[in-house]
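Our consortium's second objective concerns turning raw sequence data into structural hypotheses that experimental partners can test. To show how far this objective has progressed, the report includes one record in full. It was chosen at random from the queue rather than selected for favorable results. The single chain below, 285 residues long, was entered without modification.
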Amino acid sequence: MAAENAAEHGQTAGEYIVHHLTHLQSSKPAGVADFSVFNYDSIFFAVLLGVLGCWLLWLGARKATSGVPGRFQAAVEILVEVVDQQAKGIVHNATSRKFVAPLALTVFVWIFMLNAMDLLPVDLLPWIFGLIHGDPHHAYLRVVPTADLSVAMGLSVAVLLICLYYNVKIKGIGGWVHELFTAPFGNHWALYPFNFAMQLIEFIAKTVSHGMRLFGNMYAGELIFLLIALMGGAFTLSATGVLLALGHVIAGTAWAIFHILIITLQAFVFMMLTLVYVGQAHDAH
């Protein structure tokens, strides 16, 4: 793997980390804004895992029986029931829950699967991708879409758009505009600018914190895995080299086990905040 052969191929530890934190992306034409650059790896794995997650849920629904459920069906039923109970406790509109509850379930499963890509050996998929292209030691490929800021913020912006939709649907365009200018300080013409500014700040703050929380945790986890991989790459037939290799195995195993909690918790937190924000869109001030 690349970590074990970094020195052999002229890479320092810093170059190895930078290499693994570089996306497979489209080139940016001269004079064109950075918004024209696409991270192909993030798009590919996000779409692939999204389709896989939907297929797994469909498979669970297709094989559901009224008798004694199998392990897979039982796991899906428990997950659906937990998400549905959370949705009922936050979004009190039964009609809205017909969309919001499945949305929350999809968000949890999708983000969990995106996060779980962090549990793969950091060099495995880049090495395979490099073999396909005939350059296994210099191929760029990042496999954790939620460690990509554009993906995390894209998810949070999608939640914002859904919240705006429910604000208009539940309150009407007139009622929502009235709320924008009269909450939270009160219905007085002198307070309208301050109310509107506070509403904008609230929407922006919720959206940015929603995406940044997910991105920050997954990016940090990915970076720790890279540092652990470097310990294994320092193996030599010496006392220090053997100790580093042993530390690589112990630290990697411990961090991977702990990271299972992190990826699950981050998916759950993102789902719960989605429900909370959509629930707030139903409330009138």
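The partners drew two points from this record. The chain has a mean pLDDT of 88. The chain has one domain: 3-282. Both points have been shared with the crystallography group to help prioritize constructs.
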